Amino acid sequence: MTAARRRESQVAQPTQLLGDVMSRVARQLQEEHGDVEGMLQAITAAAVRTVPHADECGITYVIGRAKVESRAWTSELARTLDSLQERLGQGPCMDAVWEEQVVRVDDVASDPRWPEFAREAAALGVRSMLCFQLFVEGDQLGALNLYSRGRAAFDADSQDIGLLFASHAAVALAGAEHETNLRAGMNNRDVIGQAKGILMERHRLTAEQAFGVLARVSQELNRKLVDVARELAETGGVPEGRHRRD
Fold this sequence. Notes:
Beta-Lactamase, GAF, Arc Repressor Mutant, subunit A, transferase, kinase activity, transcription regulation, 5-stranded antiparallel β-sheet
């Protein structure tokens, strides 16, 4: 084999390996396609297996630049760090979702960008972090956060693989949320249909008139129409004023 061919082979092997890894990850995530919570947990577990030098992983949602909500994690450490960032109003996760697509921290203890967070995170045993923007939906954003107990643990390969992984994860998560929303919509339609059927049979109303009754009660009680329909379907009675919300 010539030197040129050897160099081509050396370049192709990591590329092929990464392709194989991502294909395996895609298959693993597809198994959770209809369950958002299951998908989130599957992403965190797969990230630790996939991204070099990652010890732990967490997924956070950041809402309105202030509220940090931990949605999935591989250990309590990830949850604790999410709470820490929300309490302090600073940290790499928040920067990843609002300022930069990727935030890398080689030495948490000495990083000057978030002094309070750095001091407390280092005390918890975290030395390196790698955070990726996962999605942006209005004022709700998601981040994929990787943690290591070693200093300067994440290198360029970790960052490149992590970025590709985050892209795959974002697509899988969007698909799961879309399917969940469709299922919820179908369930809501079924509940409303049941409630309409009860009203139509009991009061000899048309479908349009029965829907009008549900809509009027929903407005009067300041409740969602589907909640009114669900109570009627479960109890057989139209919700009354005692259910009115303050």
